[in-house]
Amino acid sequence: MYEKNTIASPGKKIDLQNYDPGDTGDFHNKESAQTKLAANIVELAEYQNILYAQNKFAVLIIFQAMDAAGKDSTIKHVMSGINPQGCQVYSFKAPSQEELDHDYLWRDRKCLPERGRIGIFNRSYYEETLIVRIHPELLHKQNLPQLDLKKIWQQRFQEINDFERYLTNNGVVIIKFFLHVSKAEQKKRFLERIQEPQKHWKFSADDIKGRDRWDDYQAAYTDIFNNTSTKAAPWYIIPADRKWFTRLAVADIICSRLKELDLAYPQISDEQKAKLADAKKMLDREE
How many structural domains is the chain composed of? Predict the structure, then answer.
């Protein structure tokens, strides 16, 4: 439905300013979008059942965004209908000392979904080309044997592309979302967190600091899209000023990508069919 309008086309120059955070596509009100979202949630639940039974593909869904863009609520709403046994969500915060003593992909590799399951990364290894780029002092904590700030970002883009190509070749479907919120809408949501007691827990003083570097973050994200949106693992830039539309667009794209896999329940052998028939006869004989 909305996939073509949000995809960061591989090989084409991406300018984040060309993507409207307030866009709602063909939907002009919340009610019609919620009806469509409900249908997508049901569809996604069915795809998950087949994905789990087939045990052939794994799905990795990555969410990146500026603070207050709605990552948590999007995950909550879009995944509300699926079986928790087949889905894992990981939130990546500042790396621990143990994680810093490994390569930067180590902690993400440990959390990759198994075949038949959906894995969700709330932030990801892309932070290593984003916040670390904005704050290079964090890079020095990694104690790298060789560090050239003029080359390291292109190097990491290449490493990430190679890593994602490897995963794709091994049956991992990668779906990457950037929830694109405007600076004005972010301010509104921060004020809500400050003014409404039930939202105080969501607020962190560190969130405000990111607004001072807003343009730097936007430039860093643009560089990420231009270097890591590939045919195998493209980026989807989702308007995030209207949460009801964000959830719909994300759900619709996930369903679309799963539909492309031609998922099917496993076919059983003649021997297994015979055993099923025998089992049925036994059950039919019971009083």
Answer: 1
